[in-house]
Amino acid sequence: MEKPLGRFGSSQVMNNEAWHRRRVFVTGCTGLLGAWLTDWLNQQQADVVGLVRDSVPMSNFDRLNLDKRVTTVRGEIEDYALLQRILNEYEIEVVFHLAAQAIVGVANTHALSTFTTNIEGTWNLLEAVRNTPKVAAVVIASSDKAYGEQADLPYREDAPLVGRHPYDVSKSCVDLIAQSYWHSYGVPVAITRCGNFYGGGDLNFNRIVPGTIRSLLDGKQPIIRSDGTLKRDYFYIQDGVLAYVMLAEKLLAGELRGEAFNFSNEQPITVLEIAQLISKLMEREDLKPLIKNQATNEIPHQYLSAERARQTLGWSARYSLEEGLRETISWYRSWLTDLDQK
Q: Tens digits of per-residue pLDDT, 175-229?
């Protein structure tokens, strides 16, 4: 079978022995990051258990045949008893906590479900880990949104966490709860704060990268819901996977517990500029973005310094923005072709 577009090659394999038969639990395993991370772990012959809430036809999780290659457990991150059972019955050693309501617009409209999933889900997981001594490493997905709006940019890890809108607040809380479980109980946790992930497998087409690509492939103008001036980090998903793995390996070595790290390619760009770059790469510059200027509760500029990750972890992004976008465009071309043939 042909290798799925964007799947990790041999040059991207890290420290295989650290993961061989390692028992790993991935919450949110069917999401954008979750599917690629689960695939990487499976390639290292880790014993992966994934928490699955919904089945999504034509998702990347299915395209990578992960439903046939890893153990999946049906349920929700809000179910404490289920989490406790998974950690104990599968003798989990490493946890990647990615499950979340991750769409900013949905969060602003449906705050309660966002708080329940993101905040309650996190304390449920960490409390279950606290009562499972075998777990040696927990990587928690926070976000650049946890910082809220700051006068000094780029964000650095010592900036306060002052989210104001529902999604941002949920991530500030996730971050602080994770820190509290280290400082109060010694739970071996580390926290990632990443920019806006993009890459093949993101089926939330209200996001600028997949939405723009799909529109251009359909011969339509891409839609920008803001005024186009919002400046953001766009962080390629394969770089994200390797950042999470590297941080988990440090935890397994007994290092960096309770610490938080920014991960970014450090190339901030406006929403309009990334839509224009995608149009250029796809040779559809004739289809000009349609600027709606309808976005609300958005922070004007958000971008990160990854200096600490470079100096402490020896980490750096492997993909330029253009390289990541080219792979992403290829993934969606293939995905839409398969979809049309269904």
A: 999 999 999 999 999 999 999 999 999 999 999 999 999 999 999 999 999 999 9
Which residue has tokens 């919450």?
27
- Report the sign of the C-alpha dihedral through residues 203, 38, 161, 195, in that order: negative
What tens digit of pLDDT does each residue of 198-208 get? 999 999 999 99
Separation between Cα atoms, residue 317 and residue 315, nearest integer Å: 7
Catalytic center residues: 167
Give all domains of the chain, ordered by start, each with its CATH number. 20-201+234-266+301-319 (3.40.50.720)
Residue with the two structure tokens 């990750």? 309
d(CA 218, CA 129): 46
Q: What is the CA radius of gyration of the chain?
A: 19
Give the Å distances, CA to CA, from 208 to 97, 196, 198, 225, 300: 25, 10, 9, 9, 15
* pTM higher than 0.85: yes
324: Cα separation from own chain's centroid = 15
